[in-house]
Recover the amino acids of this structure.
């Protein structure tokens, strides 16, 4: 044994050895039993943290439900504006007051759209108590 190599020639601490510093696997039944026991404890600990495949999250939210709600809110908002504009345009066509009816009913349609979005988001109570915001 040389003085520069504490583990003998080409030992585990030798820089020329590709396995330098690597742990050698345990052999025999004691090492296998210990490894199996640790693996089993790890699987039990991870089992509680893994989500169940196909199960819905506890709070009931998932991405498709959120997209559906966003699409519903945006369509209610846009529909309020379009219906207000159509009523205003029809009002102006009947009475010949071109910009005023359109402007007034566009603003009323915008307000109705905002109220519908707030009501469906649950931020505002439904006055008749039969809509989504009425359920508390």
């Amino acid at each position: 044994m040389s003085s520069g190599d504490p583990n003998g020639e080409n030992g585990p601490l030798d820089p020329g050895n590709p396995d330098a510093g690597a742990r050698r696997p345990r052999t025999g039944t004691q090492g296998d039993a210990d490894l199996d026991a640790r693996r089993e404890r790890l699987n039990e600990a991870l089992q509680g943290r893994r989500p169940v495949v196909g199960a819905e999250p506890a709070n009931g939210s998932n991405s498709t439900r959120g997209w559906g709600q966003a699409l519903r809110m945006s369509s209610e908002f846009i529909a309020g504006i379009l219906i207000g504009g159509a009523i205003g345009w029809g009002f102006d066509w009947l009475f010949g007051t071109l910009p005023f009816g359109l402007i007034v009913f566009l603003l009323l349609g915008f307000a109705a759209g905002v109220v519908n979005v707030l009501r469906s988001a649950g931020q505002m109570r439904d006055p008749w108590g039969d809509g989504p915001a009425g359920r508390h």
